[in-house]
Amino acid sequence: MKIIIAGAYAIGIHLAKLLSRNNEDITLMDEDLDRLSHINDEYDLLTMEANPSSIEAMKEAGVEHADLYIGVTPDEALNLNCCIMAKALGAKKTVAKIDNPEFTDPKLQAFFDNLGVSSLIYPEMLAAIDINNGLKMSWVRQRWDVHDGALVMLVIKLREECEILNEPLKNICGPNDPFHIVAIKRQGETIIPGGNDELKLFDMAYFMTTKNYIPYIRTIVGKEHYADVKNVMVMGAGQTAVRAIKTMPNYMGVKIIEIDNQRCQELNNILDDNVLVINGDGRDVPLLIEEGIKNTQAFVALTGNAETNILACLTAKRLGVRKTVAMVENTDYVAMAENLDIGTIINRKTIAASRIYQMMLDADVMNVRFLDSANADVAEFIVQEGAKVTKHPVKDLGMPIGVTIGGLVRQGEGMLVSGNTQIMPGDSVMVFCHNINMKKIEKYFIS
Question: In what residue span(s) does the RCK C-terminal domain sit (predicted)?
Fold first, then answer.
């Protein structure tokens, strides 16, 4: 597949690195040579110093043969214009990163498609969804809904209260049990478990279950004492924070702390009256105590500085806040944040990259998610008539090592998968892949 990426900024560089592992034909285009220099020789891709809006440069990059053109510069208008031109010059699909939430209205999809923009990516909105999913369940590190929640993947840190430690998985999550463990993260290593593997103290366990069994999962992992989130304190007032606050459930009380006084005045105009805007530093302990941090169930740090966010979350934890969320854009800090027991980690560029990667697959894919913490991908495949996965029970499919089928949705009903499960055409199947190219897996789901 030939892919052209316009913009060697955070998302563009991260996406180029991720896609280069699939041996795709990738060209990363930017007019700033210094930004392009962040790509080193270990990645198999072509860099091109050129103005992304130059028709001549597009032609030189081979846009007429491009399967996917991606505009991810900080300039929304430039991204849209480049996609329109790329489509006119022959690109099959185009993707533009945008900043205007108005453009995400589903009613405008046909309008942009007619212009030549196949898909829009609004990272701040995608990140806001992840933030709010984390806040709705204070005891979960990450939640991922499959097929509108018919199946649910929960990522949970296991502590002393967990009832299912040190027991072979075949004894606790067999074919008739209401959950499966699709992966385990232990001391920096990801394990795709078999029946004889056991859960250990401080493991990060990836549970696949159905929505009605979430309370049961909460009980057996010993998280019933975690208070549900009713009061939230947010530090940082960028677009991600605003989108998250505007889409938080009505029952959550929100205070936002912002160090810039002018931005605070702007927030008072764009946020609802029930959101309290505080001018100050979210790392200031006396300020946090004064504003009721000890009666707050969740602290969300969304400044543009990863170190600041991590430090603020650690401060909040020391003051008794159990649920913390930190935006960590620098992937080098993600592992450090996890080791420091920061709860939910938000990385906008990996979220955006997941959504774009979905468009590369030939199979009918509802959703794809990169799980940086586990070095794994999760995808929701729609099974085609005559696909390989419909020929045999799951145990006889010969799936590569590192691949787990966690569950499926059939006619709107979620169900877990065992070795004897027979997958049917039209099923929506959740696949967990560790160190496996998703392109190698999709062939099982297409005819």
Answer: 141-223, 366-447
Domain assignment present for residue 315? The answer is yes
> CATH number for the domain including 69?
3.40.50.720
Helices (H), 116-225: 123-136, 169-172, 214-220
Percentage, residues of the chain above pLDDT 70:
95
AA identity, residue 97 = K
Domain with 201, as residue range(s), is 139-221
And the tokens for 345?
Answer: 């980690």
Q: 282 has which bridge partners?
A: none
Does 256 reside within a domain?
yes
Rounded to whole angstroms, the Cα distance separating 356 from 345 reads 20
Looking at residue 23, the DSSP 8-state letter turns out to be: T
User: Which uninterrupted H or E stretch holds 265?
Assistant: helix 261-270
pTM of the model as a whole: 0.84
How far apart are alpha carbons 83 and 359 in whole angstroms?
15
Give the residue from 175, 194, 221 where a domain finishes: 221
Token readout for 203 is 């493991």
Give yes or no for residue 363 having a pLDDT over 50.
no
Up-side HSE of residue 191: CA atoms within 13 Å toward CB?
17
